[in-house]
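USER: Write out one fold?

ASSISTANT:
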Amino acid sequence: MHIVVVGLNYRTAPVEVRERFTFAERDLPQALQELKRTKSVLEGVIIATCNRTEIYVVVDRLHMCGYFIRSFMEQWFGIPRQEFTQHLYMYEDEQAIRHLFRVACGLDSMVLGETQILGQVRNAFLLSQSEKVTGTWFNMLFKQAITLSKRAHSETAIGESAVSVSYAAVELGKRVFGSFEGKKVLILGAGKMSELTAKHLSGGGAAEVLVANRTFGRAQELAAKCDGIPCSMQEAMQRLQDIDILISSTGAEGYVITSAQVAHSMKQRPNRPLFIIDIAVPRDVDPSIGELDNVFLYDIDDLEGIVESNMEMRRGEALKIDWMIEEEMGVFANWLQTLGVRPVIRALQEKSSSIHESTMESLFNKLPELDERQRKVIRRLTKSIVNQMMHDPINRIKEMAGEEHGADALDMFAQIFALEEQVEVLTASSISSSTASSSASSSSATPSPQVPADNRNTAEEAASSQEEKRADKEETYVEKQAALSLVQVSV
């Protein structure tokens, strides 16, 4: 089986293309079921955000799987593949796993290190799981990706510094004042940049946010979004002596705020600093204002310098996360290798159990005089011998399966014990039932990749140990009689 991702994102497709490939939230369950019915697809997850649409699948073969996924997209969206194929990317196996880890950690996002994508990946996985479209592979892979992302953000500082101009403006204000508690803020302009800044401020605890715009209706709209107070540009100029922070982004051709206006307001507010951020191009604020006492003026270049410095810091933190990703890829690869040991161990267990049962049946036919207790003791003792004989080979093949030539070791193990046909049957059965795995059983806890995969074997070994203890407690006389009977039969 193979892991494949087919998708498009902000790097490969403009927004006018991406918007044609969005999945409505209400339609995702149906889309997942359609994906599950797609030829060669065994498991699937769809991640759909404003910046990306990605389809992750486990397939039974690589050949033609890209064609089948493009056909699914063509039919679901009703768009001929000739119109979108050039915007698609496709990653297979190791590349697909690395891509998912990078996406979940925010390393593939438009804003490096953002955390919103983690929730989107998690929700996409949980929905697919609830629709029973995931199985053994994706239940492990996506849980590992989510855990890795949480670890990456907790163990690095990738999300700690502002990397947008609007957010940097707010962070700069916090550096000057410590916090916005009790501060009055004036925002000039009601464009996109002003709106983003207002949203950051509304969550920062400002006592009052005034919003001024040449069009009063736009000022009202923005003020409503940030729980602010709308006002005209003239009223705003009259309130300069009252405010602590001024953020301007009007798009006007000339200076909106002059040195004379600010100098006049500063005379009416002795010893109170005024923090001004001009994020407009061309600039709204006369640069000479920065020379006035107690006035701190920053323009777009100052902010972009902060953003670039923070981005450089984030890129450094991203390198640390890349190392984490490589480690986790090794863990997942090891888990995949040990996953292949399941049918081999199960085949050996079933074969040994069959031999044991047939031997017991033959023995009891030859010793009809044995009573029920004697039969139980013989069965337990011989079962213990079988389990002890298998214990070391099973543990050794689990170790070898996780090594470089694990697949070859599994093949040789199957040949030595003549398990080829039974392993083939069990493997085929496992593949056909992978998408039917119960989401409830897999969501309770993430299995550890380092733990050998055959839980059934562990349970049987534990049961065998208990049987041995019970057998030890049987009467010595019964054990001796059973042993004597075995000797007489062999003679």
Summary: The chain has three domains: 2-155, 165-306, 340-438+448-490. Confidence is low (pLDDT under 50) at residues 434-465, 467-491. The chain has 19 helices and ten strands. Strands lie at 2-9, 41-48, 52-59, 89-92, 184-188, 208-212, 229-231, 245-248, 274-278, 295-299.
